[in-house]
Amino acid sequence: MASVNVSEIITRAQQAADMDDDFISQSTWLYWANVEYKKLWNRMARSGYPWAVVETSITITGALQYNTSEPVAIVGFRGATTTGKYFRIPIVHPANLTGANITITGVPKMVAVTHDPTNLGNELVIRFWPTPTSSTQGGITMLAIDKPKKLVLTAPGGDEATNVRLPNGFEERIVLGMARRALGKEETINPAIEAEIRDVDTFIDNSISSYLLRDQPTVHDVNEPTHGLLPPYTDWFYP
After folding, report:
1. Angstrom distance (rounded) from CA 222 to CA 205
2. DSSP letters along 192-239, please?
3. Distance of alpha carbon 39 from alpha carbon 179, whole angstroms
4. Which of 10-19, 93-102, 126-135, 205-214 tops mean pLDDT?
5. What is the pLDDT of residue 23?
6. pLDDT value of residue 41
């Protein structure tokens, strides 16, 4: 998996569009890079590809709900017994959360995720049933795909990056998308670019499909310890 600098992405897009002058400003190229990057990132997540999965530990306090920042997708929830064994906590629709308004404590058997209506959709509300307490289990982890960082050319901040890291050369889709936008600005359609985009789209879809088809037939017993190798994508939730 190669790391490609944002400046290289812009240069490749300029070459693909055959534009080596300042007809398109650097800030516009950068804006397009971010747009295409986010589109590709979301596409990968929505395809069920467990890309860049991060683990977030939920500090159990006995509360009826927990709030978290909205990711691109929640892959699943994993609980742990007091002896360290992992178990899956299935995601259910909020309407199907048994006893949602009843305080029953114990090891959670299901979880519902909704948007926080008071936070304009920027946070998610997580509710477990039964309500877990620190004395009934060994911890809960949310596995999710975070939103991509904003691409910049220099001096990245905490939520910024000067490079992209994608598998199998997927960044070419960003390059071609930027090139098509540049050609559109001068009201030009390049059949070669369009053909390349179709080829890359097919390659990405086939790569994701091959990955999922290879893994899905594998049977995992989530009720037994797996030495930390429990598959992270056991449920999906798209905000």
Report:
1. 29
2. HHHHHHHHHHHHHHHHHHHHHHHHTT----TTS--TT---S-S--B--
3. 15
4. 10-19
5. 86
6. 96
- Single-letter amino acid code for the residue at 1: M
Res 217: pLDDT: 45
Domain count, the chain: 2
Q: Does 132 share its domain with 20?
A: no
Asked if residue 52 lies in contact with residue 145, where contact means CB atoms within 8 angstroms, the answer is yes
Residue 16 in domain: yes
| 118 within a domain of the structure (yes/no) | yes
Tell if the pTM clears 0.90, that is, is over it. Answer: no
Same structural domain, 19 and 89? no
Report the 10 Å Cβ neighbour count for 116. Answer: 15
Domain hosting 188: range is 3-49+148-215
Instruction: Indicate the pLDDT class of residue 117, thresholds 50, 70 and 90.
Output: confident
Regarding whether 202 and 88 lie in a shared domain, the answer is no
59 and 95 inside one domain: yes
Q: Are 163 and 5 in contact (CB under 8 A)?
A: yes
Nearest to residue 175, comparing CAs of 197, 147, 195?
197
User: Mind listing the pLDDT tens digit for each residue in 177-225?
Assistant: 999 999 998 888 899 999 999 999 999 999 988 887 765 544 444 454 4
pLDDT of 82 above 90: no
Under DSSP, the state recorded for 152 is: -
Cis preceding-peptide flag for 130 (omega within 30 of 0): yes
Q: Are residues 65 and 12 in the same domain?
A: no
Residue 207 resides in a domain: yes
